[in-house]
Amino acid sequence: MQLHYPNKKTEKEIFDSIPEIELVQINSSDNPNLLIQANNLVALKQLITKHNLAGKIDLIYIDPPFATNNTFTITDGRASTISNSSN
Predict the structure, then answer these.
(1) CA-to-CA distance for 25 and 8, rounded, in angstroms?
(2) 0.85 exceeded by the pTM?
(3) Which of 14, 25, 28, 48 is 20 to 30 A from 6 (CA-CA)?
(4) pLDDT (tens digit, 9 = 90+) per residue, 5-64?
């Protein structure tokens, strides 16, 4: 299935428009895991282009839910869940 609409950018146009960043290693251990704090699209481009990880990423954990225009909070009584403050 594909979504078609006027002036739709190609995957290459979108990919090329993503700014590049430098990922800085803060721990020199041989641990293969990475913790990245960045815009997810920008970070993914860096992982794909500079770290040769295209098709090799098993899990991306993004917390809290972003781009919702909501504030999420957690309290001691509900440590296993995240709630929307507008509820």
Answers:
(1) 36
(2) no
(3) 48
(4) 999 999 899 989 999 888 777 776 777 677 777 887 888 888 888 888 888 878 777 666
Q: How far apart are CA 39 and CA 21, in angstroms?
A: 10
> Distance between CA atoms of 39 and 19, rounded to whole angstroms?
10
66: Cβ–Cβ under 8 A, 6 or more apart, which residues?
40
Q: Which amino acid is at 38?
A: A
Tokens standing for residue 6:
């006027």
Q: Which of 60, 52, 49 is nearest to 12 (CA)?
A: 49
Amino acid at the residue 44: L
Q: In the numeric block, which tokens belong to residue 35? A: 């913790």
Q: Which amino acid is at 75?
A: T
